[in-house]
Amino acid sequence: MAKSRVQFICQNCGSAHQRWAGKCDACGEWNTLVEEGTAGGIGSGPANTRNARKGRAVVLTSLSGDIEDAPRIVSGIGELDRATGGGFVRGSALLVGGDPGIGKSTLLTQAAAALAAKGHRIVYVSGEEAVAQIRLRAQRLGVADTPVELAAETNVEDILATIADGKRPDLVILDSIQTLWTDMADSAPGTVTQVRAAAQAMIRYAKSTGAAIVLVGHVTKEGQIAGPRVVEHMVDAVLYFEGEGGHHYRILRTVKNRFGPTDEIGVFEMSDKGLREVANPSELFLGERHAKSPGAAVFAGMEGTRPVLVEIQALVAPSSLGTPRRAVVGWDGARLSMVLAVLEAHCGVRFGTHDVYLNVAGGYRISEPAADLAVAAALVSSLTGLALPADCVYFGEISLSGSVRPVAHAQQRLKEAEKLGFGSAVLPLGSEELVGGNGAGGIGANAFQPTELADLVARIAGSRRSRADEEE
Ligand code: TYD
Ligand code: MG
């Protein structure tokens, strides 16, 4: 008798196990193994090899050739089009992931409405909300009278039959992938097998008809529902919608894009009437700046091709604890420790008896090492109580030897700073000849370019002396 083919599938990484275990060997997550049948499951192979048919020859073709149709559908929502690389690509599948409640449905409702208003056929299938709820949201967004076609449905076969009716849709939005289920797999909705099989069916539909599809996926922590990661490799592009709790702005980040640049971001602000585009993110992250307070430094950063100015705030305070506290929001804690160590070892600045708090304004997250110099400046400023010049931006990477290393895109960073009214900059030496020369103009002429971090520390400490001189 054939053994029943039951498997335990990790809901985090999708690996299959013969028996249940508390921890997945493959990815190390706990409590993520769920029993699933293998019928039609991905990775189980053809169920019956005897029925395997002979292959059919397909026509091979060349790389050059005509491409029919305008390949992209542009929504007109600038920040969304930027993140997708210029609009939704026909015949492609896009995954929009994010935490529950971050605003994925809101964003896609707005996109659907904008596209439908332009005459595209847009189908919005929701498996999470009833039609009435979606209508309420549309009313709130002021788009209730756009001709978006709506359905509350979760079965893939039914959805495919529905959209096959009439003109081929230009865009089909499936909100969310975790609620979809197909007859082809017999696990529960939300499991890896179902999510993959349903996504596969929808992607096949997109490729064969040329309709663009958007899959919405919730990021899940519990592991009981398969996360968007299990379909990342199947789709053409992956966007994550992120935001920091308590802040209104949201960032749409491109993680993968077969048809455009990755590391792009779109910035939005959640208002009571939906998402508002933020075309100039620097203004958002610099919003709450007060001049003359020690511990604040403006970092000229880059997000993809776009410069973003953010304020970095440091607070260095005497500690009553044996092991002083180090707390970081919006930056890497290990990198902070490194900058502190370099300041101690090479610049003679001691933090051993001080608590150090570091915060990136606006709840923004920085991943660039180029922020090192701005962080160091903020730390030294807070420790000495000397405010940094309010019209100065900082960027540069710090090496363990205490030298300041050049970073890419110096020109763009300076241009953005100049545009926002900054008049001077501290940046690495060798950040291209352009500094001070053509294009960079005024701000380049006022640039201070230390080769060693100690030079910057001396300059900040030196500001006390010059200020004292002025007072005399
Ligand atoms: P939603 O798009 O439903 O999130 P997701 O689909 O990612 O789960 O957005 C939910 C949150 O957004 C909810 O807390 C309410 C808020 N919101 C606004 O603040 N303004 C609005 O105009 C809308 C439609 C929602
Ligand atoms: Mg939703």
Structural description of this entry:
The protein is an alpha/beta fold and 472 residues long. The protein is built from twelve helices and 23 strands. It has helices at 78-84, 104-117, 131-141, 156-164, 192-209, 229-232, 281-286, 333-347, 372-384, 410-419, 441-445, 453-471, and strands at 6-10, 16-17, 33-37, 72-73, 88-89, 93-98, 122-126, 149-152, 171-175, 212-218, 237-242, 249-257, 265-271, 274-277, 296-303, 306-318, 326-329, 354-360, 392-394, 397-398, 404-405, 424-426, 447-448. Helices cover 28% and strands 24% of the residues. The strands form five sheets. Strands 8-7-9-10-6-11-12-13-14 form a nine-stranded mixed β-sheet. The longest helix has 19 residues, at 453-471. The chain has three domains: 1-38; 72-279, 3-Layer(aba) Sandwich (Rossmann fold), CATH 3.40.50.300; 283-471, 2-Layer Sandwich (Ribosomal Protein S5, domain 2). β13 (265-271) and β14 (274-277) form a beta hairpin. α8 (333-347) crosses α9 (372-384).
Secondary-structure content class: alpha/beta
**What percentage of residues falls in helices of 4 or more residues?**
25-40%
Number of domains: 3
Distinct compounds present: thymidine-5'-diphosphate, magnesium ion
For the report, how would you describe the main beta sheet?
9 strands, mixed
Gross geometry: elongated
InterPro entries: AAA+_ATPase (IPR003593), DNA_repair_RadA (IPR004504), P-loop_NTPase (IPR027417), RecA_ATP-bd (IPR020588), Ribosomal_Su5_D2-typ_SF (IPR020568), Ribsml_uS5_D2-typ_fold_subgr (IPR014721), Rubredoxin_2 (IPR041166)
Pfam families: AAA_25, ChlI, Zn_ribbon_LapB
GO molecular function: ATP binding; ATP-dependent DNA damage sensor activity; damaged DNA binding; hydrolase activity; zinc ion binding
Function: Plays a role in repairing double-strand DNA breaks, probably involving stabilizing or processing branched DNA or blocked replication forks.
